[in-house]
């Protein structure tokens, strides 16, 4: 797919300096630019590459004035970084503009779907499913019975959505994620065996949620596991039954959240954090990577460690921990001195 400098400038409300008919068909870093590529200059550290890059078109700030001859066509904009980000979003939308139902695929009875559906080959849609407009379901995906999927949502290849799940609009579920599998519920018996507790609840995912590859969200035992509007989940996260995550909370990879824990809105949670079950985490909480959370946290807390405690106290304690061998040696020396004074 090719674009001219003039077309790009039109998208970005920019000004072309050079040949408006210059064509590009790929993106690149400015230091790795080649013929036919589009790049940008936002960091002054890279300004020298403007004069050496082979990129065909460079997006620059309006304030940029070249001090040497520039071979590339320039597009001047208010903010080169934001404009390039906008262009990436536009490019991604164009790339994902698919529609139609590929074969082989299965659409069961009583399914309704809106306009511009894309259903990739080897996908299965269960009974009584409701799918909104402009939904993209990539190959090898599974959508169980009685699922609802809102407008403009994308399921990438290999996504599995179990029955009764509700997925909102403008969501993105990446390859391999599984939504609605059984919660981890087993009742122990006196003889050491276990019997499975039926998991008859569901999962509710509200609008504008992103779910990373291989993340798993368990259905509730009763009621719902709920992912609120605007939540962003990284890859390989485990969310257990009856968990609730508040609006606009972001969680990094390999975090595990045990059953019935409630996390507030606008929290930031680092990678490999572990939560015990039945906790209440406040709003705007910050949890550093690899922390272990075993108690409730109030609004605005910043914690680290296992078990996690106040981030400032942790940082001070860590300094002492690193100096522990030296501190022990000094204490031993003091003990020797005291013993010697006692003997004298």
TrEMBL record:
**Position of the signal peptide:** none
InterPro entries found in the cross-reference section: Hexapep, LpxD, Trimer_LpxA-like_sf, UDP_GlcNAc_AcTrfase_non-rep
Instruction: Identify the EC number(s).
Output: 2.3.1.191
Which keywords belong to this entry? Acyltransferase, Lipid A biosynthesis, Lipid biosynthesis, Lipid metabolism, Repeat, Transferase
Which segments constitute the UDP-3-O-[3-hydroxymyristoyl] glucosamine N-acyltransferase non-repeat region domain? 22-89
Top-tier EC class: transferase
A GO molecular function assigned to this protein is: UDP-3-O-[(3R)-3-hydroxyacyl]-glucosamine N-acyltransferase activity
Q: In which pathway does it act?
A: Bacterial outer membrane biogenesis; LPS lipid A biosynthesis
Question: Is this entry keyworded Transferase?
Answer: yes
Q: Which domain of life is it from?
A: Bacteria
> Active-site positions, per UniProt?
241 (proton acceptor)
Q: Which SUPFAM superfamilies match?
A: Trimeric LpxA-like enzymes (SSF51161)
Q: Which reaction does it catalyse?
A: a UDP-3-O-[(3R)-3-hydroxyacyl]-alpha-D-glucosamine + a (3R)-hydroxyacyl-[ACP] = a UDP-2-N,3-O-bis[(3R)-3-hydroxyacyl]-alpha-D-glucosamine + holo-[ACP] + H(+)
Q: Can you tell me which family this protein belongs to? A: Belongs to the transferase hexapeptide repeat family. LpxD subfamily.
- Give the matching PANTHER family: UDP-3-O-ACYLGLUCOSAMINE N-ACYLTRANSFERASE, UDP-3-O-ACYLGLUCOSAMINE N-ACYLTRANSFERASE 1, MITOCHONDRIAL-RELATED
Q: Which HAMAP family match?
A: LpxD
Enumerate the NCBIfam families for this protein. lipid_A_lpxD, PRK00892.1
Quaternary structure and interacting proteins, as annotated: Homotrimer.
State the protein's purpose: Catalyzes the N-acylation of UDP-3-O-acylglucosamine using 3-hydroxyacyl-ACP as the acyl donor. Is involved in the biosynthesis of lipid A, a phosphorylated glycolipid that anchors the lipopolysaccharide to the outer membrane of the cell.
Can you say what this protein is called? UDP-3-O-acylglucosamine N-acyltransferase
- Gene name tied to this protein: lpxD
